[in-house]
Amino acid sequence: KQWYQRRVAITAGILAGHKTADIVLIIKHLPTLEDITNIQNLMKEKMNAQQPEKERKKATTKSHESGFSYTFNGSTLNVFVTTLPNNTKETIDPEKHLKLENLKNSLAAIRHARWFEENAYQSSIRILVRILKDFKKRIPFFMNVNPWTIDLLAHHSAVSNTNGNTLSVPQVFRRCLQLLAAGILLPGSASISDPCEPGFVKAHSFMSYEHQDELACGAQTLLRALSHGGYKEILAMKGARKITFENAVMFDGIIVTPSKLAYEKPTEPAEAMETNGS
């Protein structure tokens, strides 16, 4: 008996040195915590059957709130488990089933993957996605940007231009930094609409004000470095020095000073502090 509906790959690409892939497994019924354990054991059993006996101990599985991950020889497969959309309307037992929010997020990931496959037809979009995902791994202010926002940002940078021409990879990369530096993902901006959600949902609505400010300021610094020939440092090419966002750095005789953060957390009113103190 087939207990799953289908499997959907949702990873756009694999980065060098970062061997991780994501898939969504759709189960015909509401997935339970016991289902996750059974799937883990079944997957480990099937995968081990394809490996030499001495290699089998290297395989590990680890549960997470949306499913589990399978790791072997430095490669990781993240399995997100969900169910058919109609099943999310049923009553969910929090002690037995996966959380409704996680089920919906996994279904959303499928919509995102399908939209990207249908709309990211330009090679420059996919290359920019890989660059931005590399940024997410090693640049602090990019770590709070989720993969879906990266996909939308890359698509917007390549496609939404005034003359409708196809842009080269360097042009798309520069335009992406220009958009971020100008504040496209700041509060009150036009932003980028999520095409997979009804109404106008901003792509960066999940980010805090601090993270939005850090992203804009960091992009301004990267853009200035790029304008003065710092592309090797930005892309962390072999032999290039590590770019810093705390101190001024010289590029081709020009000193690039990091932008200062503008957002300040609101302070607690004095009266409220006195009341709490008493």
Describe the 3D structure:
This protein has 278 residues and is α+β, with helices and mostly antiparallel strands. It is 40% helix and 14% strand. The strands form two sheets. A five-stranded mixed sheet has the order 1-2-5-4-3. It has a two-stranded antiparallel sheet with strand order 6-7. Strand 3 (60-64) and strand 4 (67-72) form a beta hairpin. It is globular, with a radius of gyration of 22 Å. The chain starts with a strand and ends with a helix.
Keyword list:
278 residues; alpha+beta; five-stranded mixed β-sheet; two-stranded antiparallel sheet; 40% helix; globular
Radius of gyration over alpha carbons?
A: 22 Å
Mean pLDDT, as a whole number? 85
* CA-based shape: globular
Strand content: 5-15%
Fraction of residues in helix: 25-40%
Distance from N terminus to C terminus (CA atoms, Å) equals: 65 Å
Tell me about the largest β-sheet. 5 strands, mixed
Strands, total number: 7
Name the structural class.
alpha+beta
Q: What spatial order of strands do you see in the largest sheet?
A: 1-2-5-4-3
Uncertain spans: none
Compressed to H and E, one letter per element, the order equals: EEHEEEHHHHHHEEH
Number of distinct helices: 8
What's the arrangement of secondary structure elements?
Elements: E1 4-9, E2 20-27, H1 33-48, E3 60-64, E4 67-72, E5 75-83, H2 100-119, H3 123-138, H4 147-159, H5 169-182, H6 209-227, H7 231-234, E6 249-251, E7 254-256, H8 270-277
Parallel strand pairs: 2-5
Antiparallel strand pairs: 1-2, 3-4, 4-5, 6-7
